[in-house]
Amino acid sequence: MEKAGGARAVPASEPRVTPAAEANAVRELMRNKTMGQGDQYHVISFRWWQAWVQYTGYEEPQEDTMDTSGERPGPLNAAELVSPTFEAELKPALVEDYDYKLLPLAVYNKLEGWYGAEQPRFQRTAINRASQPGLVDVIVELYPVRGRVGIVGDNGQPTGEYEYVLLSRQLTVAVAQSRITTVADSMIKRRADNPNGVVPMWRRIWYKSVFDEPAETADAGDGERADVNSDGYVVVNEENGAAADNAEESEEEALAYVLFDDKSASTRATLLDLLDAGPVRLEIRAEYKGSFDDPWPRESVLNAWKLRLKQGDEIDAVDTEGNWYEALVMGREEIDGKINVKVHFMGWGHRWDDDIDVTDSKAASRITKRNVQVEFWRNFAVGDNVELKDHKNNKNPTWYSGEIEQIRDEGEDEDLSTTSKDGKAIDPLQAEEAALPGKRLLVVANTSQREPMYRWVCAQGEHICKMYTHLKEDRHQPKPRASYSSGGSSGYGYGGTYGYDSGTRGRPPVAGAVGLRNLGNTCFMNSMLQCISHTPQLTSFFLGGEWRKDVNKDNPLGMNGKLATVYADFLKDVWGGNHTVVAPTGLKRTVGNFNPTFAGYAQQDSQEFMSFLLDGLHEDLNRNQTKPYTEQVESKGRPDAEVAAEQWRRHLLRNDSVVVDHCHGLLRSHLTCCKCSNDSITFDPFLSLSLPLPVHNTRAVSIFLLRVDLSLRPEKMTVDMESRACLGDVKKWISDQTGIDAERLVLTDVWQHKVTKTYRDKHPLSEVREDDDIWAHELASAPVEPDLEEPEDGEGAAAAADGEGAEGGEGGSGDGGGAAGGAGTAEKGKKGWGLGLFGRKKNRGDAAQANAVGGKASKEGYPADQYVDLVLMLERKNQGGYGYRIEVFGPPRRIHVAPGTTNADVFAKVREMNSRFLDTEKTKAAADPGAAGSGATAPNGGEDADGAEGAPLFKLVSTLVYNYQTPSGHTPIEETAEPFTSRASERRLVGVVYTAEGYGVMDDQEVRMGVTSHRSHEEHQARKERAGERASISLRDCFSQLTVREQLNETDMWYCARCKEHVRAYKKFDLWSVPDVLILHLKRFQYLPGTYFVHRQKLEDLGKPEPKHQPKPKPKPTP
Asked: For bias kind Gly residues, which ranges apply (predicted)?
């Protein structure tokens, strides 16, 4: 992983306060907080945020379904969000309020003062991603542009020296270039061959974007898979290791860079305008020269391809007046070490041909690769305007404004040499163009003659030119549109322009068989575009040019025809036969301008995108210039056919477009009152149908069971449980499977080797994350909730304010903030109880009784026995041999500590666990100095089972829950007959610290792999393997599920006109008419009520739909 720097953890700096005070302070800071451009936010782990919410009661649950435990979290943490390739960057594809939480800077600073913070920390800026002036769409920029700056050596290749810079997309190009220059200059000053730190006066900065590719195609080069990020993608050209850093760039890689030129940097363009592609990275190269006359180091690499130019090569070239044109190489001549290339400008006579010396760097700059300086414009659709050449006078030809009337693919059998068709005189395809590849165009042009001129031309030939190449532009006529995906400079020339990525040029195997480039996580968009672009009814409408006459720019519900225009251009690129990959940048930007949901680069819902796109196209192409008011048609006893026809007629009064013609249908809705049987039948137009899936509403839950006998391995169990179940149901299932009393089971969530949550029985299963590890602890006796009555006279609240803390309320921390598992405020006295250390309920009358385990009993009656968590730790020396560090492994083990338990009893319990962790043979060898190969002394915390004395294998310490990984916070526990005194009011854990001697005899395989599969898990795995053999789900099943009669719930009641009240009516859907293009949306998500919000859960294990089973459509009613 690339390191971001040597920043250290930030310690807590403010005095501890009560949990309630923390919650109130944060609420005050969050009140009326709105996000504005430039605001600063911190990204933290959502797990940490949940732990803090439960500790403070910041979000009170709507019902008593989960513990507000008082478990004080450790320092602010975001370690699980770190990218696997760069420490200062977040993992890709993170989800807000699931993986991470955004905190305003003021809130983060307050929490950091109370808790401290571990590295790395992620501070991010809110930016306005709206591209149109006046629009505001502010988001937090989670993924700033990461640039890797490299210095170019004298040979034009990178020197292998790199530094990283993070750049906000809100920065202007000039500011971004300045920051990159600062980094590059500092690298030059520090070079070993530059003792005086002199920076050359002349510099140029180049960049190229680095995209991601699917992991299936990624290969490390030796047959091994390359490192894959968490989202299943591998970063291309992102070197990992010295060998890759020092590797020379190929000519193709070198040519992919774009120059930061002064003209572009002087504008107000931002990186957001420059980089229209999600989580993008930049490879940056800085080259220097000492004087103006010196050559640039990269010129030798950039110009190498020009020295190889030959007759027939296609290029862009600039004439003596500074105009760039498509050009052809007509020949080359080598004289006295110079190479002169004869260049012909396409569309111009040979008298304009020019000779360019490509060995001269200044002259060679007049040439670039094809379509670098001249945008690609030769993707055509019927109705496009071009300039047409009158071939009858080649010496001084006349050019006319023409329009494409017909397009044919290359190689079609029909004779293009015909001189007339339908009474029209047609000039045939000229002989010099017959051998050229590409589509054939029939162009009609208005000439000075009375009749228009019809002529066949080749789309790649010189008999047509881009509009206004020769003709003067008519300011009253709209400018011709450029190719949809063109305009993006790939950096082959000097001073490339800023634009969109153009995709990949080439000829697809068949028309339309092109790939769509992902722009961040936009596979949701690309999948829908592939489907819609291959729908013949719509695509032929656009490619045939018919859409132009239907554009409705006055429709207030439309997008002024912009969406229809950019979609038509997109289809030209897909079906034009000139691209193998198309980058839908223009379409995405247009959609994002009108719907901010799709303005970013995160994953979105594909069905929502499809609906928005088709609705937008419908409104842009709506043939109705005015929309009269219409009402829903009620049946009122009339025949269904009559009601449906009337409803469809009214629908067409407001909606009439190609989308309606082919994609709209009618759904019959039948409502029946549950009291008076009053019926209401209506017909509703639809664009797509959302079909429910007839699957069982279950979820697989994996549990790791820790037995009371710690010498036994954890058991992995799996159960298919109803999604609406609670964790109490899971406990009952475990009891049925194992015979363990459910009352003696405690379910916990373990994160970073620490119990962060103890679940109550009422906790909804829907609120357990799929990646949460549920650990079930079998205890020696049942944990009973403490007395939940209100503390008398506010004793709990008073204790919470006291630095030592009381033992019996709820909330707070034991070290200056009240008891985390005990004391709390009076108003919260009825909610929750301690988690890390908790116990059985004791009567108030026993308050005077001393508690040997937890210390002095409180007035509320502290529990008479406890349960503590054993945290497994390794004591390792720091590098250099100075001091120790603690490495934590495995889940904590929760054990019962009864009244009268001594320190020695706890040591004995740990030894019971060690019988599994420590290698028996190694331990015996270490205990017997005479054994062969044994150089160790007796292994024990003082004395082993055989009475041998020697170096301890482990030691026990008492540690605060929020300081358990810091050796300085550990208090040793001696193996004596004294009462065990880990106090719940201080929220302590018991650390089992294995020494170097203990680590030496540890069974590594047992520690890493020590989990036993329960038969339930094996049966579940077997069912998964057999899942493919089960009968698949057919569309008939889905339609049957849609048409099931069901009763409305309490939140969705219907008003009965006869009963004059809202009732839980019975509702039934039926398909009345289906369109030519039936769009089906399979509802793979279900929505379950939770404690704080409604949860969306994905349905898995669905089988395969069978399209052949479709309902028989009824004919669409005639308006």
From this structure: 806-824
